[in-house]
Amino acid sequence: MMTGSDDLHVLLGAYVLGGLSDDDHRAYSEHLRTCTQCQAEIGQISGLPRLLDLAGPEGGLHLVQPPPGVPVPLMKEPDDERATTLLTEVARRRRRRRTVSSVLGAAAAVVLFAGGAWLGPQLFQSTPPEPPTTHVTASAPGSPVSVDVALVTRGWGTQLDLECSGLPTDGALTLWVVDNYGKESTAASWNATGSGYTRLTGSTAVPSHEIKSVEIRTSMGRVVASART
Amino acid sequence: MGVPLDEDAVAEIYREHGPMLRRVVWRATSDANRVEDIVQEVILRVWRQAPEADNLRAYLITTARHLIVDQHRAAGRRPQEATLTEIAERDSALDQALDQVLVEEALGRLQDNHRDVVRCLYYQRLSVAEASARLGVPEGTVKSRAYYAVRNLRVILDEMGVTR
Predict the structure, then answer these.
(1) Residue B74, Cβ neighbours under 10 Å: how many?
(2) Domain range spanning residue B53?
(3) pTM > 0.80
(4) A83: distance to nearest CA of chain B, Å?
(5) Nearest 5 degrees, angle CA B113-CA A68-CA B125?
């Protein structure tokens, strides 16, 4: 059979895998001497036979029908439970939820809520993490104070995003951070607003995992709200 | 690019690559109890590092390889006993086991009609004429399928990080 150059080119596959007739083998060998394109291609795939041998004499599991009755549990699709476990772990690493309580006077224990802290891909500066977008807020009946704190891990320390309502309506307020050793430092200060509503962002050099609690205090030192992390 | 991986992305990675990773880890470690742990750790590592990976499959496999090698070394550590040669031999055996699984995976990802041709020509040592009769297609078709089979196989292996 006469073969044109295109037809010869295609013989590369059977040349590498085996099975060419003597005529075709001779024709392709001849072609290969002068065809730079085929030479380049064969350079790329010449390692294939050695790799194919790794799969065993019959090519491994995809080329051999498994004997009936032999369970192949690892071939199963992942089940939901496993995926759920994985996703739970992901959620845990992604976001540390903190449930905290706040004190206001004697009676009204106020549950402050919880923020999200992105603890994830700090290692990879090329893909900066997004600030947390999920906030959980809870407030106890009977108390006007509600504060949502998100602790965001940054390279320089911790960013604290606060959304507060029901705060005192006059005087100066200060955000304090208490670390695991009991050391206190201020992370933000601001003047009360008439509405008692404030959104602000504070910052501290204390890493988020070393922050034990967060407190909002008046200029007189009275604790308006505290959040244990 | 640049989109942080979220739960959906992780679930997607798990769905798409979990079975393959599980096979690879199982074959490389032969420790059924640890397969799932290793697979999840691999996916979490890749997720945590949020790679803008063009080639997630290779990234996952490379990560799995490192993880298995590290654990392998830790488990077999006998500072006074293990010579460098022994460590090298152990790693080399592990590499070969991994490559074996990856080649099987690659064959599994070939189109059926390409895989049939590889089976006939390579593993069963049939001639093109015999493969043509076996598969019920013209010889020219066997040849062109063989051509695309080896090219695709090379691409798939490259994608998996098998560059030899």
Answers:
(1) 8
(2) 1-83
(3) no
(4) 7
(5) 40
The answer to whether ipTM exceeds 0.85 is no
Number of domains observed in the structure of chain B: 1
Cα–Cα distance for residue pair A134/A96, rounded to 1 Å: 11
d(CA B142, CA B132) in angstroms, rounded, equals: 6
Q: Could you give the 3-state DSSP secondary structure of residue A127?
A: coil
> CATH number of the domain that B12 lies in?
1.10.1740
Q: How far is the C-alpha of B86 from the C-alpha of B92, rounded, in Å? A: 10
Q: Give me the pLDDT at residue A81, please.
A: 59
Domains of chain A (ranges; CATH) run 5-67 (1.10.10), 89-228 (2.60.40)
- Nearest-neighbour CA in chain A from B151: distance (Å): 7
Residue B108 lies in a domain: no
Minimum mean pLDDT range among A58-67, A89-98, A106-115, B28-37: A106-115
8 Å CB contact of B123 and A18: no
Cβ contact B122–A129 (<8 Å): no
Nearest-Cα distance to chain B for A19, in Å, is 4
Judge whether B155 is closer than 8 Å to chain A, CB to CB: no
**Residue B58 resides in a domain:** yes
Residue type, A6: D
CA distances to A104, A106, A221 from A218, rounded to whole Å, are 12, 17, 5
Considering only CB atoms, B123 lies closest to which of A58, A90, A130, namely A58
> Which residue carries 């942080």 as its tokens?
B4
pLDDT digits (tens, 9 = 90+) for A191-202: 888 888 878 888
Residue of A nearest to B124 (CA): A58
pLDDT by residue (tens digit) across B68-98? 878 777 766 555 555 666 666 666 777 777 8
Please indicate, yes or no, if residue B71 is contained in any of the structural domains. Answer: yes
Task: For residue B97, tell me if it sits in a domain.
Answer: no
